[in-house]
Amino acid sequence: MNKRNIIIDCDPGIDDVIAISLAIANEDKLNILGISTVAGNQSIEKVTNNALKLVSFFDKNIKVAQGSKCPLIREKTVAKYVHGDTGMGNYELPPSKFSLYSNNAITFLRDTIINADGKVTLVPIGPLTNIALLIKTFPEVVDKIELLSIMGGATIGGNRTSCAEFNVWADPEAARIVFDSNIPIVMSGLNITHQTGLDKNDISNLLNSQGAVSHMVGEILDFYLKGDHVNGGTFAPIHDACSIMYLIHPEIYEYKHMEVKVDCSEGLSRGNTVTDVRDWVTYDESYPKVLLQVNSEKFKELLIEYIYKLDRMFER
Ligand code: BDR
Ligand code: CA
Questions:
Q1: How many Cα atoms sit within 13 Å of 190 on the Cβ side?
Q2: Residue 231: which CATH number?
Q3: 215: annotated active-site residue
Q4: How many CB atoms are located within 10 Å of the residue 103 CB?
Q5: Which atom of ligand 1 is nearest to the CA of 190?
Q6: What is the pTM of this model?
């Protein structure tokens, strides 16, 4: 099987850390060409530092490029209430032994995509600022992008506000550019990410584990459970991991192609992703593939299995 080339565009961020870990556990299927960072869950300096520390923790010299410090137009808002002061809850990863590969994620993305052997899938799991800038600045990359596997939006509802998901709400103008770009999109919105995740019991099993990776994941999720949860604080959705899981196990998802429009107005509907969920309306494959159902038991089983696989791979 040919490996899929991917670049993860992220704002680590607790669930971003788990998404990147999941990708590293699946390097037999995914060729990770790099990680680009964007301000979102925390400042650009903090999320970039977390990305560098994480790749070092795994002893993987994956290229890390620092991206946008703020949204295209809006004021920057960080999600300290969910991801803590450092962006990783109370967990301290050791300092990174690797340094930043590039301080310009947009040219890094362009060069990496253009020079890649074959097409590249981008996995945007933070605000879409870098991806919008990439498309507008270097439109020549568009034909070499195989897919955007995006964590963002929702068919209904929100988390940052009653009708907007954080990543889209943070930079709605960028999200609109991306959703209107005609690049193939798979959207993992809150409607899918809230269907699956880990509960208190799973998290305490990870915390009690001897493995360095499962322990780290347990620690950051223990913090996360207080800030981003459903079912009254007993269940943590691992949003960003869904966009990676789709690439390695698409068979556990059901989807429909739909029109997705981003509301860029100010006020209550800012960042709402208006998805056409009407049963009787059909869209062809050029429209975003919106994930609608996941086998949640299978998702959880796979996620835990891959975390334990990482423990074995990086036994210390
Ligand atoms: C998204 O917002 C961030 O806080 C998470 O990392 C995820 O990407 C969920 O709405
Ligand atoms: Ca994120």
A1: 22
A2: 3.90.245.10
A3: no
A4: 12
A5: 10
A6: 0.97
How far from the centroid of its chain's Cα atoms is residue 85's Cα? 19
Task: Give the whole-angstrom CA distance, residue 259 versus residue 21.
Answer: 31
The pLDDT score that the predictor gives to residue 229 is: 67
C-alpha distances in Å from residue 181, one per residue of 22, 114, 124, 146, 233: 28, 18, 14, 13, 37
Q: How many structural domains compose the chain? A: 1
Q: Domain of residue 297: give its range.
A: 4-313
Ligand 2 center from residue 261 Cα (angstroms): 21
Average pLDDT per block of 10 residues along the chain, 316 residues long: 94 97 98 98 97 97 98 91 88 95 98 98 98 98 98 96 97 98 98 94 93 95 82 85 98 98 96 97 97 97 97 88
Q: Which of 21, 167, 244, 245 to mutate to test the pocket of ligand 1 (most atoms within 8 A of CB)?
A: 167
Q: What is the pLDDT of residue 81?
A: 82
Contact 11, 41 (CB under 8 A): yes
Half-sphere exposure of 165 (CA within 13 A, CB side): 27
13 lines ligand 1 (CB under 6 A): yes
Query: Is the shortest distance between the CB of 202 and ligand 1 below 6 Å?
Result: no
- Of 194, 215, 229, 239, the catalytic one is 239
